[in-house]
Amino acid sequence: GKHTVNLDNRTADVRVKPFTLEMGIKFELHIIISGKKINVSEIPELSIPEDWMRDKLELNFYKSQNGGGEIENVEYDKQSRTAVITFLRPG
To answer: Domain named NID: which ranges (predicted)?
Structure first.
């Protein structure tokens, strides 16, 4: 439908259009676990920007159901297809 949005004291009429989302990609990771860091290797090459890959890794390892926790840092090296995930707390 049609909607009106207020932007910086101006209004804009916008219309909603459906679009198709791309299917998700499943991949296998190989990891080495220490007290506070996880080394991830053999990350598949995907045609997405490096910051998106860092975000995907962070979201995956943040999930408590996967044994994750709060992330301090994600270092991703696209060339070597590796990453180091650093958690705020060891565990």
So the answer is: 2-73
Number of domains within the chain:
1
Q: In terms of DSSP bridges, do strands 82-87 and 37-41 run parallel, antiparallel, or are they unpaired?
A: antiparallel
pLDDT number for residue 21? 66
Q: What range defines the domain where residue 72 resides?
A: 2-87
How many angstroms separate the CA atoms of 2 and 13, rounded?
7
Look up the pTM and report it: 0.59
User: What is the DSSP code (8-state) at residue 47?
Assistant: S
Coil, helix or strand for 5?
strand
* Count of CA atoms in the C-beta half-sphere (13 A) of 42: 6
> What's 47's domain CATH number?
3.30.70
